[in-house]
What we know:
heterodimer; A: 323 residues; alpha/beta; six-stranded mixed beta sheet; four-stranded antiparallel beta sheet; 12 helices; 14 strands; elongated; B: 260 residues; mainly alpha; two-stranded antiparallel ribbon; 2 strands; 2% strand
Amino acid sequence: MDVIEASNLVKRFGELEAVKGVSFSVKEGEIFGFLGPNGAGKTTTINILCTLLKPTDGQAKVNGYDVIKERSQVRQSIGLVFQEPSLDDYLTAEQNLRFHGYAYGVPKNVLEPRLKELLEMMELWDRRKGKINTYSGGMKRRLEIARGLLHHPRVLFLDEPTLGLDPQTRRRIWDYIHDLRKRENLAIFMTTHYMDEAENCDRIAIIDYGRTVALDTLEKLKDGVGGDVISVKTEDNEEAMRLLEGQYKLKPGIENGIISFTVPHGEEFLPKFVSGFPLRLLSIGLRRPTLEDVFLKLTGRNIREQEVDSMQQMKNMARMRGH
Amino acid sequence: MAIVFRTIWVIAYRELLRFVQDKPRMFSSFSMPIIFLIIFGAGFGRLIGQMMPGVDYIQFMYPGILAMTVLMTSVMSGVSIVWDREFGFLKEVLVSPLSRSGVLAGKAVGAAIIAIIQGAIMLVLAPIVNVPINLGTVLALLPLLLILSLTLSGLGLLIGARMRSQQGFQIVMQLVIFPMMFLSGIFFPVSGVATWLEVLSKLNPVTYGIDAIRQVFLGTEVAGVTVFGHTMGIVDSAIVVAMVGVVFLTIAIWAFNKQE
């Protein structure tokens, strides 16, 4: 069964068209990733699905309910972890969760055991009486995930769940997410601009400038790149580029003095290439394509990860200084 | 409808929880009224006392100081919606099945309960400043404080419904709370001053709240605002405050629903 069905979603903010006709569906129990650079329309799409924004055009259903006409049923069916923290800093972890339980009308006899179960799962039970302003970034994120799950939602939305966290914490958050997928029968819809994180998803939609440019499983997306990625460094890269384009009929690219290109069956190609290539090779490598290659192939650009990261860091730092 | 009531209690519950946990805030809302009571009492007491024979200035001022505590607490709790928006907590509320209108009503109810608690604590000062107080006074005060604080938190919510950042807080303090405080008859009677001042004071809903509270404490001889030749009684004033409150809250809810 599909827990999310979106067809032709459009959202305009005045002149700006942030989402330009996005369609997809998410199945029960799957981790569905929305991958794209910042500003691609990921958060706008989430906001439409969780009823915070009305789409300009198109339709969406979550857990069978219409996001425009049946808002409160939709809200009851979803859990959310936002990009920016949304906890009450002055309350304790427990109090934040209880507030959530009351707000969603979770019966008292369900609420308390559920609260304990989730806090234990996120390893926060011992800190349940601590105020949020004493929590680290990773703890807050874990608590928000626990809170999002408290009312047994059918879909959990994670908007950049590991943004601003250090690599070790990011890995742990992922362990929790995989663990909870095993325990709870729910679909997870997540957005990210980290390529390596998207690899955790069952299916991935790549979104760019408000459109989905691809939607498939990780393996199929990678197969779409057309084989394996070979990267070589030669003593004369310019000459090498000419040879690769002319004689080998490949489409090589060059970055930081390393030439890379895609060939089918890389393992078989490699020995023939090494013995036959006229120029001296300084290094050569073979790897399976990554999502970065997929993105590059589909959009002709890198995902602007570097630039986005540093901007986000500045934003986070400003936030920590208390504006 | 059930969801609206649940919303009101959930939101009010959180306001109270925060109030109990935030001790500095509890004290800060007392400090200013008490400082005013002491300094103005000592500074102006003798001067103004000569103008109102039979009434001690501190006795005159005390009901106003009580209302001032309510004013500060209520307006600030109303504006706390801006905090929630800025620190993200409002999003948690907005994506929940809670009702939008109930969120604001719950904030107002929470603010009113807090204001009444603060007001009740201020009542402890009454015997110290020689203001007569008995059970009857307290029972008459409760509904008045409730109405006044609901109205003023309605004002705070009206201001906060659209405000995006906390910078607005200072402006609210300077442009709304202070004028409302000084033009409300806390420190001097609103009749017998310059006409423009009198008109402004009579447009200020706080004036009527304070007047009613003052009448409860000191009787009708020292208090009673005259509007178009009619001297307002306790009930009259309470009705004016309540009506203004309904208008504030309605506009606030409308603005909030439209925005979010």
